[in-house]
What does this fold into?
Amino acid sequence: MNFRRRLVDRALIGLSIATVITAIVPLLSIVYDVAAKGISAINVDFFTQATPLANTPGGGMGNAIQGTLILVALSALIGLPIGLLSGVYTSEYGSNWYGSTIRFLGDVLAGIPSIVTGILVYALIVIPLHGFSVIAGSIALGTMMIPIVSNTSSQALKAVPNSIREASTALGSRRWRTTLEVIVNAKGAIATACLLAIARITGETAPLILTSGISTNWFTGVNQPVGSLTYFIYYFAKSPFVNWQNLAWGAALILMVIVLGINVAVRIVTRGKRAYS
Amino acid sequence: METVGLNAWYGKKQALFDVSLPFAENRVTAIIGPSGCGKSTLIRCLNRMHELVPEAKVQGKVMLDGTDIYGSALDPADIRARVGMVFQKPNPFPNKSIRDNVVAGLRYAGVRDKRKLDEAAERSLMQVHLWDEVKEDLKHSGAGLSGGQQQRLCIARALAVQPEVILMDEPCSALDPTATAKIEQLVIDLKKDYTVIIVTHNLQQAARVADTTAFMYLGKLIELGDTIDIFEHPREGLTERYITGKFG
It folds into this structure.
């Protein structure tokens, strides 16, 4: 009996290790491939030059990087405040039917495919403005951020123990002031939620195809189209031109570094801390 | 302070039945009774914390200095600044320093002057006999203190806003005997300046610290009297059976 149990134990541990390795191998393989193929495209020009014409030597992805940074910044400006306020509401004020409805709608919004958001913004913004624009792209990405930030910050706030709300209220604080106290206690987790939402939308492509379009120029205005790392990767990678393909690999590497960098930074900063600090 | 015909509900379940209970000024009143008798509900009605529970209801009056605290013209936040509360499990704000913990209530009330806040912190910490132990560490987090010290910190925090009444909901049940003894002595010291109402399931504690004791059972006030009378010659049979440990 004893022997059989130990055998089953060892077999299951072995199986668990094997499945973990199976899960990690694709990730490591992608990271390695992108790094290996993309590193040769990275040089100073990559960051300072704009995208070249097909089969033309030189050039870089500077305008794409600039475009992505501008889009992400504007999207965050739209998505973070609305998402945070929504998260605060559903956690601290939403114990009624209204709050439950908001929570439900938030979950639905989180599940909408990004291309659908893109089509919606295309119809509502791109057509009336007669063209692709940074504004349209930011609205699309910002809208996608709202439910992500709302859900995760709501969870972060709910994790703050009730004893803090009680302590604050018992001292005679007003409701909004108690809420502020709770937010401050969850600031680490909320910051994490924001950073992860930013990392998520940095890698979006489909909505940008329909909203911010693509441009070989540097940024020219919020009502103009702009290049982005993700769209350029898509555009260059499926082209037959080698110089474009190389730049696409380089862009993929940069994108991966940005997204991985944000995730790793979040892990390092929150390592060892309590869940709600 | 006193309650007049106080009734309270959690949704459909009634927890307090017509409780009329006076609390003598500058005295310690203990509320005793078995679990579920309504003592915590009662004490939370005294600073309008009960109504924060979803679907909670309160009916009746709670008089403070002759005015009903449930009067419609009154702001619950103001009431809570006049009627302080200390909870069963010490709950200092984990992200604040010791000094910031003590003055938190003053900050909520809008006091900004750093010197005033520092003076208030020192005064309150001295009142709870914690000043000497922490005066070097005021900038450290409150979470680094022992359980007994944390509870005294919470009491200091409640005192800083200079309430008229202090409510204590089983303040020592999470503490060791040494810390408990310190807090009980503190309670006796505090009655010089404040009216103290303490809920306890520890009969010996009530006997040690309280001038007046109220015995509650299933949401009703059964008996109220001087602590000595309640323990040595209770009028009600139910009180006598609880005191002697026949149930509880």
